[in-house]
């Protein structure tokens, strides 16, 4: 009896699985037939009306191009990207700029020790004024960076331009409006070299800028304010440059091409050209972000190129292994090239 019951149970299980398999089989066959019928109908349509298909494809491509250009131009203009076209802010800005002129551009250069100041536990390795001698050596390297910035030259509309041509000058034919820790020595290397105690100099209360105004020492000398063991240590020196920004439309962007080129060159000088064994420089502006983005894209393109080569080699090996007579490796090559172009 037990054997009979067990056989009956197995029969019941087999009978239950058969309908489910049948349903899945019918569904798979119907799905396959639907796909086959669709592509067969599509092929007949293309065969019978090739001109319609070509015209529709071209029309969709043109529409996509127009939409892409429109969206790209909008993305280049930050005002249109984040502000409705009907906003009154555009008219208000034009009115203010008509009376007071274009607003200036502020860009900052930051210099720190060549370490991760956020995670380095040793305060002495983060401190730019760890002792007078090292402090002076660091400041001399900062002076080297400043001189490299002064040497930046760009060409726009046939003009050779430097910082003195695009900076804001509070006094006609005077110095540029620049604020930095080097104001403490009037941007004079000899005065810095002759200073026996740079720490004491930076702690003075009577420091002034090139224009006789009080120097904002906490602004140009960044101290740690976390309240821990490193509280009060000098970890950052800062430059601030005030530049002209006379906007005009350039390839859909509302920019000042002279200042934009100079800022792009500034990023290259600070991040790539200036070399120091102990310090590192950063630029705080949109050009610095673009520069880092371009570097990331270049790295990704290199990885993708290597990946396409590996895919091509793998495809060639697999195709040749499966069918050495009807090897279609040339098709794999064309596919890889097409992917690279995309």
Q: What count of helical segments does DSSP give?
A: 13
- How can the largest sheet be summarized? 5 strands, antiparallel
Cα gyration radius (Å): 34 Å
> What coarse outline follows from CA principal-axis ratios?
elongated
* Tally of DSSP β-strands: 9
Unreliable spans are 10-14
Question: Structural class from helices and strands?
Answer: alpha+beta
User: What is the rounded distance between the termini?
Assistant: 71 Å
Rounded mean pLDDT is: 81
Order of helical and strand elements: HHHHEHHEEHEHHHEEEEHEHH
Approximately what portion of the residues adopt beta-strand conformation? Answer: 5-15%
Helical coverage, percent range? 55-70%
Number of domains: 3
InterPro entries: NPC1_MLD, Patched_domain-protein
Keywords: Membrane, Transmembrane, Transmembrane helix
Domain NPC1 middle luminal: 123-211
Pfam families: NPC1_MLD
């Amino acid at each position: 009896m037990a054997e009979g019951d067990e056989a009956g149970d197995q029969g019941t299980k087999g009978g239950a699985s058969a309908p489910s398999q049948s349903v899945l089989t019918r569904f798979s066959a119907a799905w396959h037939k639907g796909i086959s019928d669709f592509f067969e109908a599509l092929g007949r349509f293309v065969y019978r009306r090739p001109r319609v298909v070509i015209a529709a494809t071209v029309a969709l491509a043109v529409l996509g191009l127009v939409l892409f250009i429109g969206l790209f131009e909008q993305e280049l203009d930050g005002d249109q990207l984040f502000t409705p076209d009907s906003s009154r802010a555009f008219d208000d800005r034009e009115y203010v700029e008509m009376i007071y002129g274009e607003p200036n551009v502020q860009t900052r250069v930051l210099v720190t020790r060549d370490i991760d100041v956020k995670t380095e536990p040793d305060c002495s390795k983060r401190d730019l004024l760890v002792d007078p001698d090292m402090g002076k050596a660091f400041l001399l390297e900062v002076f080297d960076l400043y001189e490299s910035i002064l040497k930046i030259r760009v060409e726009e509309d046939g003009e050779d331009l430097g910082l003195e041509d695009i900076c804001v000058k509070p006094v006609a034919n005077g110095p540029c409006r620049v604020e930095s820790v080097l104001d403490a020595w009037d941007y004079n290397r000899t005065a810095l070299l002759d200073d026996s105690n740079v720490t004491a100099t930076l702690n003075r209360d009577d420091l002034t800028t090139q224009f006789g105004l009080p120097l904002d020492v906490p602004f140009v000398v960044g101290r740690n304010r976390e309240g821990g063991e490193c509280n009060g240590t000098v970890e950052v020196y800062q430059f601030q440059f005030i530049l002209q920004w006379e906007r005009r439309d350039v390839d859909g962007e509302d920019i000042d091409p002279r200042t934009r080129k100079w800022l792009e060159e500034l990023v290259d000088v600070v991040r790539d050209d200036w070399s120091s064994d102990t310090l590192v420089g950063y630029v705080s502006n949109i050009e610095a972000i673009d520069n880092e983005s371009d570097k990331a894209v270049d790295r990704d393109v290199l990885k993708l190129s290597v990946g396409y080569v590996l895919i091509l080699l793998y495809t060639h090996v697999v195709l040749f292994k499966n069918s050495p007579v009807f090897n279609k490796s040339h098709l794999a090559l064309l596919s890889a090239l097409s992917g690279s172009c995309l």
